Each structure stands twice: as C-alpha cells, then as structure tokens.
Amino acid sequence: MQTTLDISTHHLPQVTHARNPGMGLDLDWVASVHANTSAIERRAATIGARRSVKKDFQAAWLLKAISLIDLTTLSGDDTAGRVKRLCAKARQPVRADMLQALGLPGLKVGAVCVYHDMVATAVEALEGSGIPVAAVSTGFPAGLSPLHLRMQEIGESVRAGAREIDIVISRRHVLTQNWQALYDEMREMRAACGDAHVKAILATGELGTLRNVARASLICMMAGADFIKTSTGKESVNATLPVTLTMVRAIRDYEDRTGIKVGYKPAGGIAKAKDALTYMALMKEELGQPWLQPDLFRFGASSLLGDIERQLEHHLTGHYSASNRHAMG
Ligand SMILES: O=C[C@H](O)COP(=O)(O)O
C-alpha cells in the first residue's frame, strides 16, 4: 500500500492542542489495561514490510522527518564545541543548495536535546532560531539520584532556558506495581517543569512486559505528561515497533476518554531514514496526521539526520556520499 503525506506546513512549529493537564489516578482504569503481546508483535512485523512510501513522495517524507527530530547529543565527552556544531546543524539540517533545490529553505529540526550542563550553550547557539532546547534532567539515564535533587535539576534546566524537559521515570515503581508512587513522582516532576513541556521517558527496555509499558504510559499521561518517550538510548533495548504500538494505543485510549492529545517520542537506535519512514507510517495509520507534527511527534536521535541527508542527496544527484560527510557535531 502506498501512503501520501501533507507536508504543506511541516516546518512551522505549531501548537494546535492544549497541554495535557492530567487527571486523578484512576486505578480501575490502570487495572483494566492489557497488552496482547503476540498480536502486537504480529502487527508490528507487518508494518515495515508492507508499508512503502511511493518514490516520488519519499523526499517529502524525509524532509518532514527532519522537522520531527530532537537532534541529540548525550555523551560523557560532550563539549561546548560539539553542542555548538550540533546547533548549527539544527538551524540548517541539510546543505543550503539542497534545501533550495527541494524547495524548503527554512527547514529546521524539532529541538536540540542535551544534558543539563549543555543547556545554556545550546540556548545561546540557537538564539533567534525558534528551535527549543530539550534537557534530559532527573538523574538521566538511571533516574536514581535523590528525588529532591532530581526536582532541583528540573528547576535549574528550566532556569537555564530549556523549554522541554525529558524526565526519566523510576522503573522500580513499575516493576513493583507501585502505581501511586509513579503517579505522584510524575505529577511532582510535571509541576517542577512549569511552562516547559515534559516528556516522560519510560525506559521500556527495562519494564519487563508490554502490559507494564501500557500501564506506565497511562499513568504518566494521567499525571500530566505532554509526551511519552520510549527510552534514554542507554538501555540495552531502546525504541521498537511493538513498544511503539503499545504506547500509541495508550495515547489513543487516553484521547478517547479525556479528549487530550499526548505526544510520542521513540528514541534510541533510530539511525536509518527507512526506519524513520516506518515509524511515520505507523503514526499516521494508528493516530492520524496530527501525530506527524512536531508538537505531537519527535524522533530522539543522534545520527538519523546524517542518513536522511545522504538519502536526500541521492534523491537529487543519484549518488550516495560517504557518511562521514554528514557529521553531526
Ligand atoms: O533520546 C535520544 C537518544 O539518546 C538518542 O539515541 P541514539 O544515539 O541511539 O540516536
């Protein structure tokens, strides 16, 4: 099956829906959540295989994908220099001549995502671009530092200019089914974020079952998460299609019951343009076109942009360049 895409407003950051205010913890709803793992895996296996984007539309989809990237560097050896280079890339993600040829000179990424220490550098480097800085706070990636320090870190990241905060949940609350503790913690973190949007990282590779993933997704949404995000990129298993189906269906259920749209961010290991197209086709099919806008969908990715750039160059010239010509930072 071929699929088409409206890219007319793809580069305009738009917020077309209200933030998720959250709701009280509804344990009956949580208890009723199930995930049929074998059905989900069967469905996931058909997505990449069956779904193809028509060749003529491929460049448009790839340009759209760029606008959905949280361009990320989360390494122990990050430096101000690397972050500044990444921000320059965020402002102009594809060579200017290529963007001209493709008819989208103003294309930008969705956000730049860094550790707290690099927020001020990124904010300065992105000044005037409209590109938000996302900070991974709360003792990323394990989230095991004392709660008051995790809250303090959120406050400091917001004061340093981060407009989005990617928090990590306490996996142990999920593994011990302590839903109240998970809800309370998420609620407190959301409050600490103030006007900054909060993405809840579930670290799905450490949650054991898809049912746990579904329940944790729901609780984070009940507690007011603006986005739910799969992974830190540091777990041994990061974003997968079965996890994605589980989480986007939780988003759909939440919207059905509350009318509130929550965003989705797969992260970790998404490095190839064709994988990005698969995720986008899944989003369009499961949740519809609104989830192909940066206010409701982001890729957390450090190297995806380089592969997309290579594919776009191939689209324009018929040749592939070496991947080292598309360095990120
Ligand atoms: O949230 C973003 C991830 O840490 C990026 O993971 P990646 O380096 O595998 O693309």
UniProtKB/TrEMBL annotation:
<dbReference type="GO" id="GO:0009264">
    <property type="term" value="P:deoxyribonucleotide catabolic process"/>
</dbReference>
<comment type="pathway">
    <text>Carbohydrate degradation; 2-deoxy-D-ribose 1-phosphate degradation; D-glyceraldehyde 3-phosphate and acetaldehyde from 2-deoxy-alpha-D-ribose 1-phosphate: step 2/2.</text>
</comment>
<dbReference type="GO" id="GO:0004139">
    <property type="term" value="F:deoxyribose-phosphate aldolase activity"/>
</dbReference>
<dbReference type="Pfam" id="PF01791">
    <property type="entry name" value="DeoC"/>
</dbReference>
<dbReference type="InterPro" id="IPR011343">
    <property type="entry name" value="DeoC"/>
</dbReference>
<comment type="similarity">
    <text>Belongs to the DeoC/FbaB aldolase family. DeoC type 2 subfamily.</text>
</comment>
<protein>
    <recommendedName>
        <fullName>Deoxyribose-phosphate aldolase</fullName>
        <ecNumber>4.1.2.4</ecNumber>
    </recommendedName>
</protein>
<dbReference type="InterPro" id="IPR002915">
    <property type="entry name" value="DeoC/FbaB/LacD_aldolase"/>
</dbReference>
<keyword id="KW-0704">Schiff base</keyword>
<keyword id="KW-0456">Lyase</keyword>
<dbReference type="GO" id="GO:0005737">
    <property type="term" value="C:cytoplasm"/>
</dbReference>
<dbReference type="GO" id="GO:0016052">
    <property type="term" value="P:carbohydrate catabolic process"/>
</dbReference>
<dbReference type="InterPro" id="IPR013785">
    <property type="entry name" value="Aldolase_TIM"/>
</dbReference>
